[in-house]
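Notebook entry, structure prediction.
Reason for the run: the old model in the group folder had no record of what sequence produced it. Starting over properly, with the input documented here first.
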Amino acid sequence: MNLEFIFFEAVLRDRFVDYLSGLSLTSEQRDDHFGWVVAVPELQLTQELMDLLETAYDQLQEEQMQLVEAEEGGLEKHVAGFCVDLPDGGTTTVGIPPDLAGRLMANFTVEEIHTMFAAVAKSALQPYNGPVCKM
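New structure, fully documented this time:
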């Protein structure tokens, strides 16, 4: 499995990839309809490295927000999204209102958000209507 980070500016994506390289971590990049995704294989990550990546990503997202705010009409164009692992092994990006994304990021780690969205996707695509205690 991969830990995925989405970027809306190529320059910020490139800085993150350089940061990963400086930590001797490999990554894969791909275009997404929302932006650019940087995927880091979780097998090479310790909790300490995950914490470092989250901190670096949060800083870059703050820079992204500043860039958006500086653009003419920038906040009107602002979007947010999270990559979701699907039960069939595929992935998709779910767009959500920016204020909700900010509240999620303020209260949960990227890993926790990823886990929550994957659970929602599994429940939506593989419904279970029995008692919750038997899940």
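Summary: The CA atoms of residues 7 and 61 lie 8 Å apart.
The old model has been moved to the deprecated folder.
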